[in-house]
């Protein structure tokens, strides 16, 4: 589907659909900016990219002459040159590292990341200079160029009275259909991540379980994706008492989404996203400092919703079920309490030692429900534990899995997208910390100190359908709002949406 649109038409459609409050270009639409690359060798020799070299010839060598005269160009840094060309009055030259191979230690395709950072630097420099109509060269890697461009040119400002004009971006003069197709693919992946960023940053009073469910319908139904919204009665009939217990403290009714994207006849993959639209901790209330960030405790739900959007827009031939339990976790007279005993859908009894360990309770019932679809594999994703933030910071998503094959594929996907994952242990020792109890089957938190991310994963493992390959992604550390990646800026990150899309695409393509 992506290859059927020319590059400029695609980006016009993207910007009008995703950002209706933003004009396609500034009042002076003729004021165009151009982002070009130059490779920097170890001896600081400058070599123009193939596209930049063609442009240099067009302007009779003035571009290279200006670079040599006026700048100490470095990788990831940019300089703007004005008036070299009447069609593109502003030209931002960005330095790139030359011949940087994939690094097995860093688990990141450095060539791809080099291009994302270059596109970001060029766009930010032109945007800062007031140039809003920006064209970006392909950097011999159109997909990564588009990812960096679309991510860097967006920011969350939905509720400002006076919004900043955001730049439009499109691919610079490529007659190559392959370039256009790759650019469009990268742009759609980045657009999906921007959707997750927007949802995660939306204030909780404006994104209740009901509003989230309505948004999912509006987003996906036009793409031919089936969205079913189940209510409290349905959940009670399903005996999802772990899920329902978390919702008791809020007047907002819980919702359970079952989303179906069917584009082949194989057994489905199942994605499960934690959808706590606000988490105050319940009776085990959180400290007030930074509690506002718990509006993003539904980032797992946002990521799986954005993933199915991206796959549908890319017309990926796969069969996908997406399950999203949606609740608020608040303290009140009706809230569940520490010490309460509840039952999950599979009949296991759970003692609630801490009501702030609620995400694993709603995921437990969703994981049980996934067995109904006889899936090839199940993947759940959640902002689950502060322990993961301590362990990995904002650098990588922590992953627990019972399948080496699936984990290795996910790791390769993260290497390509630059949004890395790191495997954590899923040992029986952690299961003992939550399962050795005299009066009930499980505690919702582990005994002793430390290993909170591991005991949480061990808890979830008790609800995974028998003999099913499974991945658990703990994204508490990569949620945001402070991000190390320049193309994300401040705000909730929407990570790892692009990695999930890549992960599923790779399997569909096989």
From TrEMBL:
GO terms for cellular component: cytoplasm. One of its GO terms (molecular function) is metalloaminopeptidase activity. Pfam families: Peptidase_M17, Peptidase_M17_N. One of its GO terms (biological process) is proteolysis. It catalyses: an S-substituted L-cysteinylglycine + H2O = an S-substituted L-cysteine + glycine; Release of an N-terminal amino acid, Xaa-|-Yaa-, in which Xaa is preferably Leu, but may be other amino acids including Pro although not Arg or Lys, and Yaa may be Pro. Amino acid amides and methyl esters are also readily hydrolyzed, but rates on arylamides are exceedingly low; L-cysteinylglycine + H2O = L-cysteine + glycine; Release of N-terminal proline from a peptide. The keyword Protease applies. CDD domains: Peptidase_M17. Belongs to the peptidase M17 family. Its EC number is 3.4.11.1, 3.4.11.5, 3.4.13.23. It is an enzyme of class 3 (hydrolase). InterPro entries: Leucine_aapep/pepB (IPR011356), Macro_dom-like (IPR043472), Peptidase_M17_C (IPR000819), Peptidase_M17_leu_NH2_pept (IPR023042), Peptidase_M17_N (IPR008283). Residues 354-361 form the Cytosol aminopeptidase domain. The lineage of its organism: Eukaryota, Metazoa, Ecdysozoa, Arthropoda, Hexapoda. Keywords: Aminopeptidase, Hydrolase, Protease. Cytosolic metallopeptidase that catalyzes the removal of unsubstituted N-terminal hydrophobic amino acids from various peptides. The presence of Zn(2+) ions is essential for the peptidase activity, and the association with other cofactors can modulate the substrate spectificity of the enzyme. For instance, in the presence of Mn(2+), it displays a specific Cys-Gly hydrolyzing activity of Cys-Gly-S-conjugates. Involved in the metabolism of glutathione and in the degradation of glutathione S-conjugates, which may play a role in the control of the cell redox status. This is Cytosol aminopeptidase. The keyword Hydrolase applies.
């Amino acid at each position: 589907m992506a290859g059927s649109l020319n590059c400029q038409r695609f980006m016009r459609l993207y910007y009008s659909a995703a950002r209706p409050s933003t004009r396609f270009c500034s009042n002076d639409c003729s004021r165009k900016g151009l982002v070009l690359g130059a490779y920097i060798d170890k001896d600081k020799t400058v070599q123009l990219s193939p596209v930049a070299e063609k442009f240099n010839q067009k302007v009779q060598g003035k571009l290279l002459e200006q670079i040599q005269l006026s700048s100490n160009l470095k990788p990831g840094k940019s300089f703007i040159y004005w008036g070299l060309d009447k069609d593109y009055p502003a030209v931002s030259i960005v330095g790139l590292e030359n011949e940087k191979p994939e690094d097995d230690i860093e688990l990141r395709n450095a060539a791809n990341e080099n291009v994302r950072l270059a596109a970001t630097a060029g766009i930010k420099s032109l945007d800062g200079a007031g140039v809003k109509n920006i064209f970006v060269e392909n950097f011999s890697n159109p997909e990564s160029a588009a990812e960096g461009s679309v991510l860097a040119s967006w920011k969350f400002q939905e509720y400002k009275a006076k919004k900043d004009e955001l730049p439009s971006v499109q691919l610079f003069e490529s007659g190559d259909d392959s370039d256009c197709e790759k650019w469009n693919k990268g742009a759609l992946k980045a657009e999906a991540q921007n959707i997750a960023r927007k949802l995660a940053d939306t204030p909780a009073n404006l994104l209740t379980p009901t509003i989230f469910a309505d948004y999912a319908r509006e987003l996906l139904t036009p793409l031919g994706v089936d969205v079913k919204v189940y209510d409290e009665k349905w959940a009670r009939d399903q005996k999802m008492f772990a899920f329902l217990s978390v919702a008791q403290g809020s007047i907002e009714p819980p919702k359970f989404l079952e989303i179906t994207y069917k584009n082949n006849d194989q057994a489905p993959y199942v994605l499960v996203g934690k959808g706590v639209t606000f988490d105050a901790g319940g009776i085990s209330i959180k400290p007030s400092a930074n509690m506002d960030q718990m509006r993003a405790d539904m980032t797992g739900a946002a990521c799986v919703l954005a993933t199915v959007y991206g796959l549908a827009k890319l017309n990926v031939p796969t069969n996908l079920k997406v399950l999203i339990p949606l609740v608020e976790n608040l303290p009140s007279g009706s809230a569940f309490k520490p010490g309460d005993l509840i039952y999950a859908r599979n009949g296991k009894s759970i003692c609630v030692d801490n009501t702030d360990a609620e995400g694993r309770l709603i995921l437990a019932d969703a994981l049980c429900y996934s067995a109904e679809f006889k899936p090839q594999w199940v993947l759940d994703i959640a902002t689950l534990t502060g322990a993961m933030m301590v362990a990995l910071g904002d650098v990588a998503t922590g992953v627990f899995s019972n399948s080496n094959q699936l984990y290795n594929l996910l790791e390769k996907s993260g290497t390509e997208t630059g949004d890395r994952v790191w495997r954590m242990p899923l040992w029986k020792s952690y299961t003992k910390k939550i399962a050795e109890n005299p009066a009930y089957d499980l505690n919702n938190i582990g005994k002793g100190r430390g290993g909170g991310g591991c005991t949480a994963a061990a808890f979830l493992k008790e609800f995974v359908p028998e003999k099913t390959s499974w991945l658990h992604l703990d994204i508490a550390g990569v949620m945001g709002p402070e991000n190390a990646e320049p193309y994300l800026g401040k705000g909730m990150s929407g990570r790892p949406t692009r990695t999930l899309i890549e992960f599923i695409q790779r399997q569909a393509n096989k």
